[in-house]
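Why do we care about 3D structure at all? Because function follows from shape, and shape follows, mostly, from sequence. That is the central idea of this module. The next example makes it concrete: a single protein chain, its amino acid sequence, and then its structure expressed as tokens.
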Amino acid sequence: MSSFLVPSFLRLLVHLDSQGQEFKLFFRTFGTDLPILAKELNDFCEGRHPQFPEVRLDGSDGRRDLRLQTGAEGGACRLARIQHRKDGHFVLISGQSGLDEEGLPDLDALSLAGTAVEGQEAVTRVFAEMTADNHTFGLRDDYTWWNDHKRDGNFGKLLLLDPEDTQRLQLFVDDNIKRTPEEGHGIVDVRDSKTWEPIPPHKTFGRYVARCSPYAAVTDSDYYINLVQKHVAALRQVNFT
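And the structure:
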């Protein structure tokens, strides 16, 4: 039985696929659990989940492949990690480096090895590349940076939005997002992808960010289907002005 991916979330994936909906998955965590999550997701996609044995979302039928590639078998690795230097510069590290380890990686060594990019422009470019195709990605965010800044949303998990992009709908779901816009984003750092200026909560709540209930996600089998349908309807009416 899955310990990270609740059945209501997996039902969402089955539902979206049955509707022919194009979508991408981007898993975010402060922890070291991405390799474990990847195995659970891949077992589901390959029909090894006990509740979804009929599911095939591994590309074997010539259709979509939602598996999270870790590079363990020599293929592409679609995992990454964000860290910050002391001056606040973003560093995005591609691959498995430090994903399942505590402590900070050697950023200079990783930069020299070509597995890390630094600065807003480079991070924006890599984020765009990650979300441009149909692959699933996993990103470990910088818990220390967020915690050292009193858990302020402006130092949390980065979400880059393009106010002029009306074709792509992004939704960030997390149980640590605050309950109201007046409280702030809580765990998500929402920024304009072109200017990197923070986007205030009153422009994102109910549209681009959604607080989820772990209890409801476990007890209501349609929880994530209903949550996504509700927010997609709001996203289609979004206005940044």
